[in-house]
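Known limitations

Files may contain more than one protein. Parsers should not assume a single record per file. Below, a two-record file is shown to illustrate correct handling: read the sequence, read the token line, then continue until end of file.
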Amino acid sequence: MSLAVVIPTLNEAENVAGVVRAVLQVLPGATVFVVDDESSDGTATLARDAGARVIARRGPRGLGHAYREGFARVLAEGFGAVYQMDADGSHDPPVLPTLVGGDLVIGSRWVKGGGTRGWSLGRQVLSRFGSAYARAWLDLPLRDLTGGFKRWDADLLRRVLPNCTQSGGYAFQVETTLRAHEAGARIVEVPITFAERARGRSKMSPAIALEAARVVPGLRR
């Protein structure tokens, strides 16, 4: 089965090359697509030099917008399975081959065996609350709804993506999982350890968290 890995980036020059090389080492033969939101630090060039195909975006910035464009490209090119992950090293590339067993497999921090490394108590509480909040509003039987380390069966993603229209930011992670659940997908959570980035600055902010919280109730149908 042909494999694609979609990695959105915004000013990740310190991390992207190492992540791309590590992915290609553990998934030989996979194609890595780096979806770059006009980074000013040379991220796109470094990703390309490391072996990735770069999708240079010119539209509105945002995680959801980047993933939509990346997913649309890999589906158009006929890949059989699609991984999604962060570019900052928080998602450990050697874990990629363990994301198996379902139509959608979620690398989960909040199931037994999962967790975080290097996070403050406040950030852990915020992340747990975010998943609990989404779970309560949307009545979903899953523990980690805000994470972005996933493996999609391409046929499922092809059915789900046109219905994911309400989230341009981090709530896209919740919306895609919700639409997969509504489509009757077999969804599996695999425990992972999410590590705090070692280099660069996180894009998460209170404003982004509040935007996601505002969007979630409107995802219900």
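...continuing to the second record:
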Amino acid sequence: MAISADLASPDVYADSAAERLGTSANVVTLVRTVASVALAGLAAREASLTLLVVALVVYWVGDMADGFVARLRGCETRIGAVLDILCDRFCAAAFYLGLAWLSPEFALPIFIYLAEFMVIDCFLSLAFLAWPIRSPNYFYVVDRQLWLWNWSKPGKAVNSSLFAVLLLVTGWVWLGVAIAVALLVLKSVSLVRLGRLGLPVPAS
């Protein structure tokens, strides 16, 4: 499928000359990941839900900060996008496994959510590499519907924060299961749509 150029700005497309690992945004990504995972580990050791929530906040704030720094300093790269995607999974896994450790009654919704986020959503998020765009944030030039479901601001909020917030605030296992299953269905439908779209093979 051809990229829709009319929706793109020049910053949408990757520049091979700008690709590098040592950027300020990637430093932020690594720092927030180490901090969040360390706090989650400490929370599990101390059996502290408060520390675990702090770990989640560090993950979320850091995730916003590295993107902001990348755009502000003009160092938004495909390498950085992949690093951010993988570090998000590490932070999320540390938090949710810690939550399952502290509150075993949440194990079912947590593991349904992790199956969705760690496997299906990870595959979807890395699929941007098949096109010459900088990150999944610009997938609207490939397929606007997939972008709306997965990488628009509302799509990201539903996938990354709604589940955790409602689980922590309400403590309702059935609600957690319902949200996790709904997200799993949405990501599965997205995966089918991506399959129909096809992943282009780079020219050799």
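Parsers that stop after the first record will miss the second one. For reference, the second record is described as follows. The chain is about 70% helix and 0% strand.
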